[in-house]
Amino acid sequence: MAGNILNYYAGGNTARGFYSLYESNLEGLDRVFILKGGPGTGKSTMIKKLGQRWNEAGFDIEYLHCSSDTGSVDGLIIRSIGVGIVDGTAPHVIEPTAPGAIEEYINLGEAWDSKKLAHRKIEILELAHQKKQAFETAYATFNKALKIHDEWERYFIHNMSFERANKLADELIEKLFDGNTLTKQADVKHRFLGAATPVGAVDFVPNITEGLKKRYFIKGRPGSGKSTLLKKLVKHCEKTGYDVEVYHCGFDPHSLDMVVVRELGFAIFDSTAPHEYFPSRDGDEILDMYDLTIREGTDERYEKEIEKVSKQYSEKMKEAISHLAEAKEWHLKLEAIYVNAMDYKVIDEKTEWIHEQMEKLVKH
User: Fold this and answer.
1) Which residues pair with 5 in a beta bridge?
2) Which of its termini does the chain have fewer beta carbons within 10 Å around, N or C?
3) Is the pTM of this model over 0.90?
């Protein structure tokens, strides 16, 4: 019987540039294989092959998806055997903590024909430059969108009852934790539930919340206290010893989108666009922050202003996504050059070697 698969992002294209949360998810693993090699060298394919093999053998696995290509994965974690396999090339460069003892570099460049690549050096450099420029433009545009979003938030922050928001947080914490504490240190994992990708916003909310008894769908406007509520829940978990999965906002990683506490069987998440969901099963409940914390009539009072800033934000986000799509086009052209210079038999041998190392860890 196959194991479970958990899907999420550990890195994202954000308003603050490429933002990495890899360190949090690799922490505590006994062995981490860091894959090095250019585009098209088979990193994602290798990760998927190993993931499928071990999952079909009954192991629970975690896939760390690629925010720049929805068809690729950047990592695999099998926590029950303490192993991780990750793409360690830019922009998600992994800093080893104990090289050789925990982390091991796997050089996929051994499989390419350097002479073929040397003949296309100028083309490779130009394509890499164009790709970098597209990403930088995308990040700068996301940052402009964030400033517009901050303006949008102000209309609601200035009409918010912080007293009611604090009371709601306290009541929710009491309801969820019932005053209980655990005599251990909380294991806190920081992730993204979704990402801005070349095809738009993508998320894994249904997969992440699958099997949980209780799901709270937070509704509300920008600036209505959704992220602040989630941060208070995280602090309470840290204080009381409950393991917690902290899912950051794929647009602004300084904000939170979801908190999952599997020991208590609940998830609570920002269920507004671009990851908007509605109750669909027993145990689902809506928390409407607009109704609960914002002064009545705020939408109507600032209708024209909100409509204008909302439109500006949407336009900037679409523009930023178009630059991510452009970056992917340059990447695909780079990839084609490397694919043509690869001997994938070497990659297959390296895949088998990693599998054997994993088997040894299981036996020991």
Assistant:
1) 61
2) N
3) yes
